[in-house]
Amino acid sequence: MKENSMKNASDLKFFIYSRKSSEDSHKQVASIADQIETLNRMVANERLLLVVPPLTEEKSAKEPGRPVFNEMLTRIEKGEANAILCWDNDRLSRNPIDNGRIQWMLQNGVIKVIKTPSREYYPEDAGLLMSIEGGRATDFVIRLSKNVKRGLAGKVRNGWRPSPAPIGYLNVGEKGSRTIIKDPERFELVRKMWDLFLTGTYPVSKILDIATKEWGLRTLPRRKIGGNPLTMSHMYSIFNQPFYYGYFEWEDYGTGEKRMFKGSHEPMITENEFNRAQTLLGKKGTARPKTREFPFTGMMECGECHSSITAEEKNQAICTECKHKFSYENRTDCPKCGTDISEMENPTLLKYVYYHCTKKKNRACSQGSIRVEELERQFNEILDGITIDEDYLNVALDYLADKQKNGESEEKTTRASLQASFDSCQARLSQLHREYISPQNKNYQLYTPEEFSKQKAEILAERDGLEMELDLAKEKFDKGMEMTERVFNFCAFAKKEFNTDNLTKKREIFSTIGSNLCLQDKKLFIDKLHPYLLIENELRDQKKLYERLERGKRGYTKEKEAVFATSLPNWLRDQGSNLGHPP
């Protein structure tokens, strides 16, 4: 069949199809030209019949729906051509829909041949090959998409918004590792715009006139756009954007939901100034962003109905005229005296965060909400129970260091014992084989085949288990010491780190010391992991002892360390238990 196809080459009518791998016309400009030059050379050398001039397309093949590609296949179905000449199979398709259509037309002879500089695809032998190579192209696109998303997620975790910086900032650095810095030409001008707006006396239109006409502020010139005066929509976008106070909205790689992330760039304004701006924008009907990062969501459940616990923010203001406190969301004035918010002189703005049951499993759930301050207070009490001071930590780390030094001899003793047991298994196995094939067992007086197989399997299982223990002996000891050290360090510093503004660290600590976090009747319950329960119990006993010691008395520190030291062997006896995973 392939030979017939080659013999009937004069019956073939070709379309040349060339596609760029990027829709950005600035990238790979020479790509199409290089493809067409090579393909035209093939046309001349092989005397191929070309129906029309080369078809070109600047569109990704990741998604179906390329207009030039679809038009080419339609024209082939109408009989205008019956062959395709292209740079490579992946130029035709990188998605399963287009790949399936091409494969179907080839297998049914609608397309007689697909030629590339490196190979030819015919109906009789290329179906599977096209499917494999098309699948590879599709898989490449999928993996590329995942890698891009993973890379963007890494940038977001590091506090860098993976998109063009807003006016007043610049993206700098190489692609893949770009950061955001202040624009020395525009940063101060945009800050002055905020200053004017926060006075409450300048409308946005007036600030726009001042910025563009008096200051000459223009957008950042880029390759094809930029260098233009700001517009009203751009102005409202600036005053609505959390980026200027240090946060940005992006999709969470794990959940797929959009949420707020703390940026690593230098903020232009404070969060209070941003909140003030949102209050002023309320009279224009412009809603402030509602998305915010809450550190403890997704980790607790309701103790009554077992729904998840969520969080929300409430924003209130105190009227400067009548002192009435009210929610200023979607309001432009005080509901009591009618004073316009924009006319209040430095009104007090209050922000509250509440955690409460979502009631998804039971709409009639009776559980109320709890302020974040109260939730953190209760968790701090839990941390108090496992917090060790610097004296305890130093004693513990010294003890572990000594134990690590002695670990080599302990490990040798353990390995020697395991090796002896392993050698015993080998000897028993050899003895079993000798007895089974000995003349004394000619008529199975010693072992039947079933008995031999059973005993052999038992010895082999024992030997394999010992071999595994031998391999893991050192690793198990080192890992146990490492995890123990991490637990002690966590107990020493967790409370201090929890009571900072680092929301990621708060979340890590909140989820580390236990499981089954539950909120019921405004009280937090946690099932502590085994190592933290041990420390809590030991600390409770120790405090009773060293509280009897007299502070300031000579030798107080040594006596206190002695009390600590007595607890360490007790605690370490249980180090084989689940140690958790402290951050």
**Rg over alpha carbons:** 36 Å
Give the total of domains.
Answer: 4
N- and C-termini, Cα separation = 66 Å
What does the average pLDDT come to?
A: 79
Number of helices: 16
State the low-pLDDT regions, or none. 3-7, 23-30, 283-290, 575-583
Strand element count: 17
Strand content: 5-15%
The shape, in one word, is flat
Helix content: 40-55%
State the major sheet: 6 strands, mixed
Structural class by sheet pairing and helices: alpha/beta
What does this structure look like?
InterPro entries: DNA_bind_recomb_sf, DNA_bind_recombinase_dom, Resolv_N, Resolvase-like_N_sf, SSR_resolvase. GO terms for molecular function: DNA binding; DNA strand exchange activity. It comes from Candidatus Campbellbacteria bacterium CG22_combo_CG10-13_8_21_14_all_36_13. With 583 residues, the chain is α/β, with parallel strands linked by helices. Strands 1, 2, 3, 4, 5 and 6 form a 6-stranded mixed sheet that branches. Strand 16 and strand 17 form a beta hairpin. Helix 12 runs antiparallel to helix 13 and helix 15 runs antiparallel to helix 16. The longest helix has 50 residues. It is flat and about 110 Å long. The two termini are 66 Å apart.
What brief labels describe this structure?
single chain, 583 residues, alpha/beta, Rossmann fold, Hect, E3 ligase catalytic domain fold, 4 domains, disordered N terminus, disordered C terminus
In short:
This protein is α/β, with parallel strands linked by helices and 583 residues long. The protein has helices at residues 2-7, 29-46, 67-77, 89-92, 96-107, 127-157, 187-198, 204-214, 232-239, 271-281, 372-384, 390-437, 449-498, 503-512, 530-546, 556-572, and strands spanning 13-19, 49-50, 55-57, 83-86, 113-115, 120-121, 169-172, 179-182, 247-251, 258-262, 301-302, 309-318, 325-327, 348-357, 370-371, 514-520, 523-528.
